[in-house]
Each structure stands twice: as C-alpha cells, then as structure tokens.
Amino acid sequence: MALRRVFMVGTGLLLIRGEEAFAEEIYSPNPFMNAGSLAALFAADILIRRSLGCRKIQATFAEGYRIEGSSSRGTDHARVYTHRGQGMPIRDPMRHNAVRHKYGHAGFTLIELVVVVGLIAVVLAILTAVIRAASNSFQLRRSATVVTSELRRAQSSAVAQNIPYAVEFILSSPYGINEWKQPSGGGWVAVPRPVTGSENWPSQVSIVSVPGTPNCSGISGSGSNWCVTFQPLGFANQGGSVQLQNQSGTSTSIILNAATGRVSITP
C-alpha cells in the first residue's frame, strides 16, 4: 500500500509538471517543445490509468487544465484534453482499434464515381464542340484571306509584268485555287504558290458559289472550274461574289469589282 501511494504521488507530480510545461510552451514556435510537453501529459495519464484501474478519472490542474475520460479498456475510444472549456479530442494510444485502418472506409462510392465521370463527359463534349466550331471559323477566315491575297497579287502582277494573270477556283472537292499567267505570245503557265492547290486548301471549307459559269477550259484545261482574269491595266474580265462556307454552316463572301480590280471580304 505504501509503495502504491509513493507511485501515485510520483506520477501525480509528473502529471502536474507536464501540465505546467505544456501551459508554458503551448504557444512556443518550437514544435518539438510542444510535442515534448504533450508527451509528458500522455505518459502521466497512462501511468495513472494502468496503476489505479478506476472507472472514471478527472485530474484538475492549475490554470484550468484537466484530462477527462473513462478508463475502461472496453469502452474508451478517445479522451479530451481541455483548457477552460476548449478541448482537442485525442485518440487513445492504447486502443489498437481506435486507429482507422487506411484501407477501411476511405474512398468514393459508386454513385459519386458515376456522377464525376458523367460531369467529365459533359465538359469534354462541350469543349470538343467549342474547339471544333473555333477551328472551323479559323479555317474559314484563313481561306477567305488566302483568296483575297491571291486575287490582289494576280492583279498587281498583271500590272507589273504587263501580261494577263488568272486565278482558277476549283469548284469540286477537293477545293482550292490555282494561279496562272500568260507570257507574251505564249500559252498559260501555272504559277506555283505555297498556298495554292487543293493540297493546301482547308478540308473544312467549300467554295459554294462563284459569279459566273465555269470558263477555265482555255486556261487550265478544266472546263468545270471558274477563272477570273486580270488584264495589264488592272481590271478583271468579270466580277461578283465568291462565297465560301465551312462545316458549321458559316459562310463569308469575297467581293470582286471588275472595273477596278478591288477585292474585299464581307461576313
């Protein structure tokens, strides 16, 4: 009995000393000091619980610190270390079943996975449609720019070289444009350009309509295509609107003024 009382007094002093150190160092910036003080509280509490084996412990310290909780091994799952009504629940380190297994209940349910996968599918579908529409719009603007620049280049070349130049529009798939020139006293010769030819024409864009009937049989040898010819004075043999359309149904027109050779783009 005397030995047990001495042991109780010693553990009580250890518990009070740990409480005092914890009260002094709880706001310390050193995490190792806080951890050491809290470990002293744990050690003292475990010693008292194992030595007394009582059903209920309530040790009150100076400055309002206390440890509350049942000491029954079969029912105690957590204790609360409190200070003036504010506490932090701490799992019992002596209870092996108090620690949740890492593969226990963590994870997602089937409904959550289905919802997440469904949302991802919807977002991807919307992004795909937006990207496709943006790509079609870009290719349409690019094609209109290419046609406009090649018509202007053919006109300026005809004036600069004093020979006729022609731009051929391929009206069937694969679509595209070609450029031709007629040297003095000779036939028509193809002018290679990096943007001409069906292989350089965007597949998403079609040449829907031209202002005249196919008339390229005497220039390129293809009677199914339409050609506009610029004379050395800068005017064209015919003018009108060339309409382009992409896969989304959006269209744009290139307007050619035959008298002046001026070219413009309209939405």
List the SSEs and their pairings.
Blueprint: H1 2-25, H2 31-52, E1 56-60, E2 65-70, E3 78-83, E4 86-91, H3 110-161, E5 165-170, E6 176-181, E7 189-190, E8 205-209, E9 226-230, E10 240-246, E11 251-256, E12 263-266
Antiparallel strand pairs: 1-2, 2-3, 3-4, 5-6, 5-9, 6-7, 8-10, 10-11, 11-12
Account of the 3D structure:
The protein folds into two domains: 2-98, no CATH class; 139-266, minor pseudopilin epsh fold (3-Layer(bab) Sandwich), CATH 3.55.40.10. The termini are far apart. A hairpin with a 6-residue loop joins strand 11 and strand 12 (263-266). By secondary structure, it is an alpha+beta fold. It is built from three helices and twelve strands, in the order H-H-E-E-E-E-H-E-E-E-E-E-E-E-E. Residues 1-42 and 52-101 have low confidence and may be disordered. It has a four-stranded antiparallel sheet with strand order 1-2-3-4, with no helix packed on it.
